[in-house]
Structure formats: C-alpha cells, structure tokens
C-alpha cells in the first residue's frame, strides 16, 4: 500500500465511473465495436444528424436553395470534422445518398408547376418525352426524387456544382490528414 502525504478531496461519481470491456465503452457520439474495437458513430448521433438534415432540407421551408445548401454545407462539414475518424465508409455513403434524395425533393417541390418541371428537366438534359411524362406525374416529391429521370437530370455532378458536399470525399480528405 502506498502512502500519500496529502488527502485528495475528489468525489467519484459511481454512476459514471466503471471498468468495462472496450466494446462497452462510449465516447460522446462514438461507440467501439468488434474484437479490434473499431470506432463507429453511435446510432443516437446518426438519428440527430438525420433530424438536423431534415430541418435544413424541409420542403415546406421557404428558403432559397443557395441558403439551404449553404446551411447544409456548414453542418455537414462540422459533423464530418467530428465524426470523420470513424471507419464507416458504407454509413457515410448511405447518408450521402439519402441527403442527395432530400435535395432532389427540394428541387422538385420548388418547381411547382408542370410547365416549370418540364422546362427544368429539359434544361438538365432529359429527353422531351420523358420530361413531359415525369412533369405530369401525380406522385409525391420523395417518390419522384428516386426516379431515373431525376437521376439523369439532377446528376451527382450537377448537385455538387450547386454546392452539395460529398460525405465520402470529406471522409477521404480527413483520412489523409490522420
């Protein structure tokens, strides 16, 4: 037994202090899984991320697309700055795909009328017949954002040119820094 010449007046919170295996350790927003204790984003953090993206990309929110994409860009950059050290490329790819679909919904909702939708799709390179058929569709924005016509018109490169960030690209840049 070691002798300390002074007494530490530290109160230990027994609810927060514990000795556990690395698979049960939590760090704010992260969990450690597997035998090698890989760092993953916690499910709570993913739910909070999705909720915030829903707030930013709300279709009934009367905000210009430039402002919406700017807010989304700032949020995604900050989120990836914190969670970029997680080794979950598949998660980031699926989140990126979901964000692109939400942005396509916003554009579809923004082009409210049939003639506007048809004109915008034609301007994006969709054939006239296909653009006219999709512009008249009575399906909702979420369904229409998944169609091949919107994928042909609003390509990933076009969305990137509009200001949408790629989670996978940000993750790759952060991985090179570490």
Describe the structure.
This protein has 178 residues and is mainly alpha-helical. It has one domain. It is built from nine helices and three strands. Strand 1 (26-27) and strand 2 (30-33) form a beta hairpin. The radius of gyration is 23 Å and the shape is elongated.
- Whole-Å distance between the termini? 42 Å
Q: What is the tally of helical segments?
A: 9
Q: State the helicity in percent bands.
A: 55-70%
Rg, alpha carbons:
23 Å
Structural class: mainly alpha
What is the string of helix and strand elements?
EEEHHHHHHHHH
**Parts with pLDDT < 50 across at least 5 consecutive residues:** none
Short description:
The chain has helices at 43-56, 65-83, 89-110, 114-123, 128-135, 141-144, 148-153, 156-162, 167-177, and strands at residues 26-27, 30-33, 38-41.
Describe the protein's topology.
Layout lengths: L25 E2 L2 E4 L4 E4 L1 H14 L8 H19 L5 H22 L3 H10 L4 H8 L5 H4 L3 H6 L2 H7 L4 H11 L1
Antiparallel strand pairs: 1-2, 2-3
């Amino acid at each position: 037994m070691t002798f300390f010449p002074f007494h530490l007046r530290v109160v230990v919170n027994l609810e927060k202090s514990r000795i556990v295996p690395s698979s049960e350790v939590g760090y704010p927003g992260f969990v450690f899984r597997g035998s090698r204790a890989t760092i993953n984003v916690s499910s709570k953090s993913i739910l909070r991320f999705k909720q915030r993206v829903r707030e930013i990309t709300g279709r009934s929110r009367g905000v210009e697309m430039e402002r919406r994409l700017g807010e989304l860009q700032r949020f995604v950059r900050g989120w990836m700055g914190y969670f970029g050290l997680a080794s979950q490329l598949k998660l980031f790819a699926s989140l990126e795909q979901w964000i692109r679909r939400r942005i396509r919904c916003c554009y579809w909702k923004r082009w409210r009328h049939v003639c506007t939708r048809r004109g915008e799709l034609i301007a994006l390179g969709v054939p006239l017949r296909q653009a006219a058929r999709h512009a008249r569709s009575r399906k909702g924005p979420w369904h229409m954002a998944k169609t091949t016509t919107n994928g042909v018109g609003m390509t990933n490169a076009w969305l990137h040119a509009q200001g949408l960030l790629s989670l996978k690209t940000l993750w790759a840049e952060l991985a090179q820094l570490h």
